[in-house]
């Protein structure tokens, strides 16, 4: 009887140790899936609603084929997705570009890294009261985003069109104070990015982010000029899939990257967004 009791106690302790080890993982991946669940387990990803969560929805069945369930948690701000990832409430997030991530890590002591560039949202120059950059009028008003990152992108795009000249060293930190040549005496009007579409009727042209153009029923194909895939801005501000440092080699993360960089996702982005969102894998 004593021997039987001892064996039973060992079994209970062994089971407790096994389940205790399993509970330390933030991923629900297990070696044996419950009935009806994919063999690989669940991946929880935080994302902005559009286009990120929409793209992830299309990725769901593709990831299911690889044995993983994808759970999407949508966020309306740019802070909680990173703090939730750092706190192991998410396995990854998809909403930001590298400069924002670098700045967030520096200011918040987080340890988050990019594992893949998925898409970029090109800025475009859209017609307002005027409809031709070639026939731009003196003292034309051009609205640009008023945040540091996107204002620099807008000014670089205007420079590419020969409308202004910036200090060579300004680069992706340029503001309108860095304009050294303005042959058309253009009035650069700094506006909140979300308000630029509404501003079109009051200015000659506006430089608008791809996501806001999309929300305002503007088509990048109708833009007078736009950032191209090989531009410095497009490469720098690609939207990335982010994980905690040390999780880059996880098999479920590798599977997610493979799906998000697949032809199926690239084709969906092309068809759905008509140039307002551009796959980095094209």
Describe the protein.
This protein has 282 residues and is of the alpha/beta class. The protein folds into 2 domains: 39-121 and 236-279, Periplasmic binding protein-like II (D-Maltodextrin-Binding Protein, domain 2, 3-Layer(aba) Sandwich); 124-226, D-Maltodextrin-Binding Protein, domain 2. The chain contains 10 helices and 13 strands. It has helices spanning 2-22, 49-64, 80-86, 98-108, 148-160, 196-199, 210-215, 232-236, 251-260, 263-273, and strands at 41-48, 68-75, 92-97, 112-120, 124-127, 141-145, 165-166, 179-181, 187-191, 205-208, 225-226, 239-244, 278-279. The strands form 3 sheets. The chain has a 6-stranded mixed β-sheet, with helices on both faces. Strands 9-6-10-5-11 form a 5-stranded mixed β-sheet. The protein has a two-stranded antiparallel sheet with strand order 7-8. The radius of gyration is 24 Å and the shape is elongated.
Secondary structure layout:
Elements: H1 2-22, E1 41-48, H2 49-64, E2 68-75, H3 80-86, E3 92-97, H4 98-108, E4 112-120, E5 124-127, E6 141-145, H5 148-160, E7 165-166, E8 179-181, E9 187-191, H6 196-199, E10 205-208, H7 210-215, E11 225-226, H8 232-236, E12 239-244, H9 251-260, H10 263-273, E13 278-279
Parallel strand pairs: 1-2, 1-3, 6-9, 6-10
Antiparallel strand pairs: 3-12, 4-12, 4-13, 5-10, 5-11, 7-8
Helix pairs in contact: 2-9
Briefly characterize the structure.
This protein is α/β, with parallel strands linked by helices. The protein has helices at 2-22, 49-64, 80-86, 98-108, 148-160, 196-199, 210-215, 232-236, 251-260, 263-273; strands at 41-48, 68-75, 92-97, 112-120, 124-127, 141-145, 165-166, 179-181, 187-191, 205-208, 225-226, 239-244, 278-279. Helix 2 crosses helix 9 (251-260).
